[in-house]
Amino acid sequence: ATWLGVMGGGQLGRMFAHAAQAMGFKVAVLEQEEDCPAGQVADRLIRTSYTDAKGLEELASLCGAVTTEFENVSADSLAALAAKTYVAPSAAGVSIAQDRIAEKRFFVDCSAGSGVQPAPHKIIASEADIEAISSDLLPGILKTVRMGYDGKGQVRVRSIADVKAAFAEMKGVTCLLEKMLPLAYEVSVLVARGADGAAVVYPIAENVHRDGILFTTTVPSDHVSDAVAKKAQDAALAIIAKLDYVGVLCIEFFVLTDGALVVNEMAPRPHNSGHYTIDACITSQFEQQARAMARLPLGDVRQHSPAVMLNILGDIWYEGESENMREPAWDKILALPGAHLHLYGKAQARRARKMGHITFVAPTMAQAQAQLAAACAILGIAL
Ligand code: ATP
Ligand code: MG
Ligand code: MG
């Protein structure tokens, strides 16, 4: 069998392995952490750091293609792999998504064709940059240029004094100040592109975040007009083509209260907001990634059922604010028609840690929403 390799041992690697193995591939995972979600199901686990030359060599010589499930794998590691095997997405595409400055610049370049702009922003690399902030960027959000996720590495700021304090807090790492925009709602678009340049785009998804972490994804959402959906999907297709990207890419957008569409950021991999595709689309985002890596035709992206995805965080293992822990009532969840439970095999439930997700599929969105409400009542999650 052909081996496919993954950099990173998290849940995205685990769900990728499930999809790739179902198609007959063997999967190798490179990850340092013991007992990681992807390592538990991989055909081989190479337990080492993402920058270990020997580990990279082993992964590359075993695998016909390698991908990444962790967006901060160093571009140098991907380039080292690419010297020995096929790597998708390439180091070039991944490195743009790892750096908010490069990413914003790239989005501005793409906007000429699509008309979709990123939020107004300014690079903050020094005290002098702070003095030069124009007042129309405030209130804003100061974000670290690299390594931020789930709202970590960002601070909301109202004044120049706030920016100074927040920048000092970030210990001098380069940041980006973004204007705080009036959001009506948030959406994301998954796109995939094959080595032959053929691209497919999934239905647009509406995302609700809580405390900076994705809470639910709803597809289709009745907030999203056909015009907004088409504009976002066209922008996503333009972005993936301009990146000359191979594999699955997720692009997050904001829809503002005046209806304008703004591009936020992209993730060079399958994405949490695309988990619904496992249970609700002809081809899941993970199968699509395996197809793209193996240079096979991409699959049909059509959605066959309305779907709502609920992220399961470690918080629900705790009884209220106490330290007492118990297993959530999965038997009651699985008694709900159309509920698909996905747990990632993480040994320790910690607060704010993504432990799994549930996708509710139903003949109508109203029924899927009713199942979501029932599940939240069972699990003690306020809707
Ligand atoms: P992810 O986990 O999706 O990678 P992240 O930590 O990289 O998240 P962003 O997506 O940049 O962070 O921002 C997190 C959330 O903060 C957004 O989903 C949105 O709700 C809010 N937000 C970010 N930028 C802005 C903005 N310019 N105006 C208003 N809200 C914003
Ligand atoms: Mg991000
Ligand atoms: Mg985001």
UniProtKB/TrEMBL annotation:
<dbReference type="InterPro" id="IPR040686">
    <property type="entry name" value="PurK_C"/>
</dbReference>
<feature type="binding site">
    <location>
        <position position="100"/>
    </location>
    <ligand>
        <name>ATP</name>
    </ligand>
</feature>
<comment type="pathway">
    <text>Purine metabolism; IMP biosynthesis via de novo pathway; 5-amino-1-(5-phospho-D-ribosyl)imidazole-4-carboxylate from 5-amino-1-(5-phospho-D-ribosyl)imidazole (N5-CAIR route): step 1/2.</text>
</comment>
<comment type="subunit">
    <text>Homodimer.</text>
</comment>
<keyword id="KW-0436">Ligase</keyword>
<dbReference type="InterPro" id="IPR011761">
    <property type="entry name" value="ATP-grasp"/>
</dbReference>
<comment type="function">
    <text>Catalyzes the ATP-dependent conversion of 5-aminoimidazole ribonucleotide (AIR) and HCO(3)- to N5-carboxyaminoimidazole ribonucleotide (N5-CAIR).</text>
</comment>
<dbReference type="Pfam" id="PF02222">
    <property type="entry name" value="ATP-grasp"/>
</dbReference>
<dbReference type="InterPro" id="IPR016185">
    <property type="entry name" value="PreATP-grasp_dom_sf"/>
</dbReference>
<dbReference type="InterPro" id="IPR054350">
    <property type="entry name" value="PurT/PurK_preATP-grasp"/>
</dbReference>
<feature type="binding site">
    <location>
        <begin position="264"/>
        <end position="265"/>
    </location>
    <ligand>
        <name>ATP</name>
    </ligand>
</feature>
<dbReference type="InterPro" id="IPR013815">
    <property type="entry name" value="ATP_grasp_subdomain_1"/>
</dbReference>
<keyword id="KW-0067">ATP-binding</keyword>
<comment type="similarity">
    <text>Belongs to the PurK/PurT family.</text>
</comment>
<dbReference type="InterPro" id="IPR003135">
    <property type="entry name" value="ATP-grasp_carboxylate-amine"/>
</dbReference>
<comment type="function">
    <text>Catalyzes the ATP-dependent conversion of 5-aminoimidazole ribonucleotide (AIR) and HCO(3)(-) to N5-carboxyaminoimidazole ribonucleotide (N5-CAIR).</text>
</comment>
<keyword id="KW-0547">Nucleotide-binding</keyword>
<keyword id="KW-0658">Purine biosynthesis</keyword>
<dbReference type="Pfam" id="PF17769">
    <property type="entry name" value="PurK_C"/>
</dbReference>
<feature type="domain" description="ATP-grasp">
    <location>
        <begin position="108"/>
        <end position="294"/>
    </location>
</feature>
<feature type="binding site">
    <location>
        <position position="209"/>
    </location>
    <ligand>
        <name>ATP</name>
    </ligand>
</feature>
<dbReference type="InterPro" id="IPR011054">
    <property type="entry name" value="Rudment_hybrid_motif"/>
</dbReference>
<dbReference type="Pfam" id="PF22660">
    <property type="entry name" value="RS_preATP-grasp-like"/>
</dbReference>
<protein>
    <recommendedName>
        <fullName>N5-carboxyaminoimidazole ribonucleotide synthase</fullName>
        <ecNumber>6.3.4.18</ecNumber>
    </recommendedName>
</protein>
<feature type="binding site">
    <location>
        <position position="143"/>
    </location>
    <ligand>
        <name>ATP</name>
    </ligand>
</feature>
<feature type="binding site">
    <location>
        <begin position="148"/>
        <end position="154"/>
    </location>
    <ligand>
        <name>ATP</name>
    </ligand>
</feature>
<dbReference type="InterPro" id="IPR005875">
    <property type="entry name" value="PurK"/>
</dbReference>
<feature type="binding site">
    <location>
        <position position="186"/>
    </location>
    <ligand>
        <name>ATP</name>
    </ligand>
</feature>
<feature type="binding site">
    <location>
        <begin position="178"/>
        <end position="181"/>
    </location>
    <ligand>
        <name>ATP</name>
    </ligand>
</feature>
